[in-house]
């Protein structure tokens, strides 16, 4: 059974609008990728197509690569056949400009796909980011090279190492997107932008080759060194944050095209790591809790918690009690004697006061 596809509509003005359709988040499954390659090939061959706009169905650009596909990739697939040969060699190097029209989410491979385009138009509330490190891997479709060249090295490291996404407005501020428009004008604006690039009224920019957002080598090395220190401090036993930094550094020192293959090979190695396998297991386990047969599918409404009883007023118990109280839930605290009870109550009062101050 096919898992998603893309559709293509050629407008009267010569813009081919390719739409990703794979509910609920338009994930990039192998079927979607194959369909995307087919439609792109047709758009590039057709004489009546001047430019291409890439968007997602039902208000979502793409939530990224479908992680159900990990471990199921074709055995004889050439490393980099999609990220290098297609995205870089076909889309980015094409003689027809591409513009990404982003709404909803552009995460992981979705954002990497958008960054390959020659311009990006977004809605204000769209969510953009590269959260791959949460799964024990690194961006594997050129993200380690293109993001630093669009938003700068420091911001790119922050977004990747912390798996931090940003809204469309902030993305525009940092140069990740070129324009912000309302959802009802998104595709039409992207089409106009694509035609202006085709007519050379706007610059035809390849993200991979940009250097205007990068610092000099000396400053870049300082930033990368600081990132390594921070990564070791926060996650000393994890390999993938350091691998991500190494791949980014490869592009800074030796050029982005050389680093693309290192990104592919490093990503392939990390996919097989026990860390990534464990983090993916956690991801699927968390999703499974929202799909429990005869429970989550019955439309039940959770009852509001009115009162909670906590046994023990130590640091942990006091912290739990504080969270309940700040959520307007009555707390009953049980301790072994009155002395410990009073100590716990006083600690909770202190925590509550601090919590109220933090909320202001």
Automatic annotation (TrEMBL):
Which is a Pfam family this sequence falls into? Answer: ECH_1
Q: Name one GO molecular function term.
A: lyase activity
Gene Ontology CC: peroxisome
Domain 3-hydroxyacyl-CoA dehydrogenase NAD binding span(s) in chain numbering: 307-357
Q: Does the keyword Cytoplasm apply?
A: no
Q: Which UniProt keywords apply?
A: Isomerase, Lyase, Multifunctional enzyme
InterPro entries linked to this entry: 3-OHacyl-CoA_DH_NAD-bd (IPR006176), ClpP/crotonase-like_dom_sf (IPR029045), Enoyl-CoA_hyd/isom_CS (IPR018376), Enoyl-CoA_hydra/iso (IPR001753), NAD(P)-bd_dom_sf (IPR036291)
GO terms of biological process kind: fatty acid beta-oxidation
What this protein is called in its record is 3-hydroxyacyl-CoA dehydrogenase NAD binding domain-containing protein
Family according to the record: Belongs to the enoyl-CoA hydratase/isomerase family.
């Amino acid at each position: 059974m096919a898992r998603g596809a893309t559709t293509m509509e050629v407008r009267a003005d010569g813009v081919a609008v390719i739409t990703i359709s794979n509910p609920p988040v338009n994930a990039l499954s192998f079927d979607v990728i194959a369909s995307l390659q087919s439609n792109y090939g047709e758009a590039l061959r057709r004489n009546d197509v001047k430019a291409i706009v890439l968007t997602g169905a039902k208000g979502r650009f793409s939530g990224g690569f479908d992680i159900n596909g990990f471990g199921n990739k074709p055995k004889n697939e050439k490393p980099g056949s999609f990220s290098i040969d297609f995205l870089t060699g076909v889309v980015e190097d094409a003689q027809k400009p591409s513009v990404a029209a982003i709404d909803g989410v552009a995460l992981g491979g979705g954002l990497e796909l958008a960054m390959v385009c020659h311009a990006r138009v977004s809605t204000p509330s769209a969510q953009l980011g590269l959260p791959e490190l949460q799964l024990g891997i690194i961006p594997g479709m050129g993200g380690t090279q293109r993001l630093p060249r669009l938003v700068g090295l420091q911001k790119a490291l922050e977004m990747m190492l912390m798996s931090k996404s940003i809204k469309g407005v902030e993305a525009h501020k940092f140069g990740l997107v070129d324009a912000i428009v309302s959802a009802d004008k998104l595709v039409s604006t992207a089409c106009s932008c694509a035609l202006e690039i085709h007519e050379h009224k706007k610059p035809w920019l390849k993200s991979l080759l940009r250097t205007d957002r990068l610092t000099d080598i000396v400053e870049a090395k300082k930033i990368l060194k600081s990132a390594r220190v921070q990564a070791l401090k926060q996650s000393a036993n994890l390999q993938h944050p350091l691998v991500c930094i190494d791949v980014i550094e490869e592009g800074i020192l030796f050029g982005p095209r050389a680093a693309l293959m290192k990104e592919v090979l490093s990503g392939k190695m990390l996919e097989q790591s026990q860390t990534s396998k464990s983090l993916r297991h956690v991801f699927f386990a968390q999703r499974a809790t929202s799909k429990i047969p005869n429970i989550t599918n019955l439309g039940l409404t959770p009852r509001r918690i009115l009162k909670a009883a906590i046994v023990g007023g130590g640091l942990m118990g006091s912290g739990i009690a504080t969270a309940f109280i700040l959520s307007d839930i009555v707390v009953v605290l049980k301790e072994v004697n009155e002395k410990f009870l009073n100590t716990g109550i006083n600690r909770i009062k202190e925590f509550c006061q601090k919590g109220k101050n933090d909320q202001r």
